[in-house]
Amino acid sequence: MPKSRVEFWSEKLNGNKTRDERNFATLTQAGWQVHVVWECELNDREVLEEKLRGFLGSAAAPLIP
Fold first, then answer.
1. Could you give the CA distance from residue 4 to residue 14 in angstroms, rounded to a whole number?
2. Helices marked H in the chain — which ranges?
3. In sequence order, which residues have a C-beta less than 8 Å from that of residue 9 and are 6 or more positions away?
């Protein structure tokens, strides 16, 4: 949590969490599978590709050029 404007950031982050939960529920209820990729996971392309292949299935074409 940032040290400045704590009230603003607390409300902002809680709102983001609520929005994400709502969107996740809406997508899953519509029959979609959802996989979250965190920004920090973008640092290791090989690990990310392995995770995405696992999610999408082993028949997936190369994901990252």
1. 16
2. 6-29, 45-56
3. 1, 2
pLDDT, tens digit, 9 for 90 and up, residues 20-65: 999 999 999 999 889 999 999 999 999 998 899 888 885 556 655 5
pLDDT of residue 63: 57
b (16+ CB within 10 A) / e for 52-64? eeeeeeeeeeeee
CA distances to 4, 27, 29, 46 from 54, rounded to whole Å, are 40, 20, 22, 12
Note the pTM of the prediction, 2 decimals: 0.67
Closest C-alpha to 55, from 22, 32, 24, 26:
32
Q: Given CA atoms 39, 40, 45, 51 in this order, what sign does their dihedral have? A: negative
